From TrEMBL:
Transmembrane spans: none
This protein's name: ABC transporter substrate-binding protein
Subcellular location: Cell envelope
Family label: Belongs to the bacterial solute-binding protein 8 family.
Keywords: Signal, Transport
UniProt main location, coarse: other
Domain Fe/B12 periplasmic-binding, first and last residues per copy: 64-240
Origin: domain of life: Bacteria
GO biological process, one term: iron coordination entity transport
């Protein structure tokens, strides 16, 4: 792309955004902003969803320099004027299918699109983790980011290490359970096939436990007894601010197990993903070292 040809990017709704030159002031949903930062694009601002509060949830922000990136807020407090206060020339949002902008009211999203280009990337279960990551990488490149071979090498090394740990523990593979504590008495247990990041783990050979069939497409809602009846030896625990503390769910009588901090809204940059895979490998080793 040359400056003479301008900037164009077709998003996952099939809508093309265009500008005379690549945008330089990006406002993004927090997940998208943190991913773009890992790929070499610094957003001027981020915004949250209805799950978020008046301050950014650091479980979702990765390595974003929060002292340099404005937080516009979240939920019902957001309107187009507040989002545009930082002077963005591009908004990057995510969708969980159907092209619906996640985290913004439809009317707010409509008003934004009347004022500034909006790119929406699909992060739904219909796509693989790699496909989603490739779309973020393509957007970052269009905005001027350069490929980072060192980051890709780190990710390849993390994958290889996790495969090696899985192989070493294959005779007695640790049972891994991904969950979001709802209260001291209840948990939302993830169905692994519905989460792109958890599917990566199963593809690498990790034994991610499937909860019982029943209502709930992405999660099974289980009480404490039924949750721990699944005999987890490693727990991937939702650490987002709205999740209940895992220790309250486990209780004082629970058998200690390695815990991996898990953000169900994963970041798709190579270094962030490599970091997560490394933590899973550490936990599997710890589960068998005991």
């Amino acid at each position: 792309m040359t400056e003479q040809s301008g900037w164009r990017f077709s998003d996952d709704r099939g809508q093309q955004s265009a500008a005379p030159r690549p945008p330089e002031r990006v406002l993004a949903y927090v997940q998208a902003g943190a991913t773009l930062w890992d790929l070499g694009v610094r957003p001027v601002g981020i915004f949250g969803s209805d799950h978020d509060g008046p301050d950014p949830d650091t479980a979702k922000t990765g390595t974003l320099p929060l002292d340099e990136v404005a937080y516009a807020g979240a939920g019902s407090s957001l309107d187009a004027e507040r989002l545009l206060a930082a002077g963005p020339d591009l908004v990057v949002a995510v969708s969980y299918g159907g092209g619906h902008v996640y985290g913004l009211a439809p009317e707010t999203a409509k008003r934004l699109e009347e004022r500034v280009p909006v790119v929406v990337l699909d992060v739904s279960q219909a796509r693989t983790f790699a496909q989603i990551g490739d779309r973020f990488a393509a957007l970052a490149r269009s905005l001027g980011a350069v490929d980072r071979p060192g980051a890709e090498r780190e990710l390849d090394a993390a994958r290889q290490r996790l495969r090696a740990v899985v192989t070493a523990t294959a005779a007695d593979a640790p049972r891994v359970l991904a969950l979001s504590p709802a209260s001291p008495e209840e948990a939302y247990v993830a169905r692994p096939g519905k989460w792109p990041e958890l599917r990566v783990l199963t593809e690498l050979g990790v034994r991610v436990v499937e909860p019982p069939e029943g209502p709930g497409v992405n999660w099974a809602t289980l009480d404490r007894a039924d949750t721990f009846a699944l005999r987890p030896e490693v727990v991937l625990a939702d650490i987002r601010a709205h999740a209940a503390p895992l220790e309250e769910l486990r209780g004082s009588e629970a058998v200690p197990t390695p815990v991996v901090p898990w953000n169900p809204e994963p970041l798709y940059g190579p270094r962030d993903h490599a970091r997560f895979l490394g933590l899973v490998a550490d936990a599997l080793e710890a589960a068998r070292a005991g």
